[in-house]
Amino acid sequence: MSILIGPMKLHLNGHKELTSYGEVKNIVAGKKVYIPLQACTDILVNAGDYVKKGTMIAKRNDHFVVPIFSSVCGKVLGIEEVELKHNPGQKIDHLVVENDGCEDFERPFEPLDAEKATVEELVTFMMNAGIVGCGGAGFPSYVKYRGAKGIHTLVINAVECEPFITADYRIMNNQVEDLLYGTKAMLKMSGAKEALIAIKTTKKDLIAKVNEALKGQDAMKVVEVPDMYPMGWERTLIYEIFKKRYDRLPGEIGVIVNNATTAISFAEALKEGKPIIEKLITVSGDGVKNPSNVRVPVGVSVAEIVAQIGGYAQDEVRVIAGGPMMGKTATSDEMVITTASNAITILKPDPVDTIACLRCGRCNDNCPAGILPVRINNAEEAGDVKLLAKLRADQCIECGMCTYVCPSKIEVTEGVRRGKALLRAATQK
Ligand code: SF4
Ligand code: SF4
């Protein structure tokens, strides 16, 4: 089965000018950092141990291997179970480190020359460096390359289609050589003949910069894609480039996709032996006085970041983990930055009067996953799991488009999210 892609993609007002060109501000960690741990994680330190930036503190060890590193120097205080602010009800363990402000870095692994290394060495290195998808997903990247066969193209996703977010744009501008180094290493690991770096056609300055750096690199090139949403979604992007659809994974049609910042993080690991202990993220929206791109240690809270860039624009704001379309509203700004974070959007609350569904079908017409959001909403309200399965609620990518286009101001996406969760819970029984 191949998943359909709905006919519609929309041009959204990006508000990218808020953060595209200002300086990247460095955020200093406060007295404590809370480093999120996954389930099935072996803790490698004890309360009272002293760690440095880069010290390996834990390792996920179930069906994936993902080491986790300290982002600051200081004493380990222990493990605390903390509710995820953007996912109320879900609690996960966090390792708490008391930051002493020291800048010592402990290299947790040796750099690796990507030109000389074998494919197997590179894949193992990527695994042991804890490289995860930096575009928001946080999926361990090595899994895409382990045993990769029949891949003809590596796509580096630099589309960044959600409004407000410019973190990829900024980091690519600042570290174009790293982008190419990481991409080249990934290309080798994939076995593909060609790497395409997908950038929105409106980013002329970035396209020119990457093209200049790519001179003489015949196996890598820029592909320009329309400034539409959700062009950065893997299925939309692949359809745009190859006019092909797939069922579960892009590998089925010979493609691997990785995010641009992931390629840069991989380059930093290869060249410097540096894991992902800090992130360049966008903090933007009309609810913050000085929208900015910031470089922030993992485990620092949104409250600390906002305080260091000038504060909120008003007392009441809505804090969203991610962009305004796919992100999730948080219950508090004590939410911390993870290795997968790419943006925090802060908006002034916009009171809306919801009216009854007009049955206009706009949500259905605009769904890029080709499913029927309004019918899924109704099935969720009725608790009809069979119908949710029939309507393929699980295919929703939570892009936010159905809410965005709804003239009745119904939170359609939230209903579909609940429907997905209901279906998942029923199938896991
Ligand atoms: S959020 Fe809405 S529009 Fe987007 S994929 Fe899900 S159902 Fe479709
Ligand atoms: S877009 Fe809104 S009003 Fe129109 S059918 Fe969907 S839920 Fe109903």
Automatic annotation (TrEMBL):
Cofactor note: Binds 2 [4Fe-4S] clusters per subunit.
Main location: membrane
InterPro entries (UniProt xref): 4Fe4S_Fe-S-bd, 4Fe4S_Fe_S_CS, Ion_transpt_RnfC/RsxC, Nuo51_FMN-bd, Nuo51_FMN-bd_sf, RnfC_N, Soluble_ligand-bd
Entry's Gene Ontology cellular component terms: plasma membrane
EC top class named in words: translocase
MF terms (GO), sorted A to Z: 4 iron, 4 sulfur cluster binding; electron transfer activity; metal ion binding
Record key words, sorted: 4Fe-4S, Cell membrane, Electron transport, Iron, Iron-sulfur, Membrane, Metal-binding, Repeat, Translocase, Transport
Domain of life: Bacteria
Membrane topology reported for the UniProt record: Peripheral membrane protein
EC numbers, comma separated: 7.-.-.-
Domain 4Fe-4S ferredoxin-type: 347-377, 387-415
Binding residues for [4Fe-4S] cluster 1: 357, 360, 363, 406
GO biological process terms on file: electron transport chain
Protein's cellular compartments: Cell membrane
Binding of [4Fe-4S] cluster 2, residues: 367, 396, 399, 402
Cofactor(s) needed by this chain: [4Fe-4S] cluster
Keyword Transport: yes
Function: Part of a membrane-bound complex that couples electron transfer with translocation of ions across the membrane.
Record-linked NCBIfam families: rnfC (TIGR01945)
Family: Belongs to the 4Fe4S bacterial-type ferredoxin family. RnfC subfamily.
Quaternary structure, from the entry: The complex is composed of six subunits: RnfA, RnfB, RnfC, RnfD, RnfE and RnfG.
Protein name as it appears in the record: Ion-translocating oxidoreductase complex subunit C
Source organism per UniProt: Proteiniclasticum aestuarii
Gene that this sequence comes from: rnfC
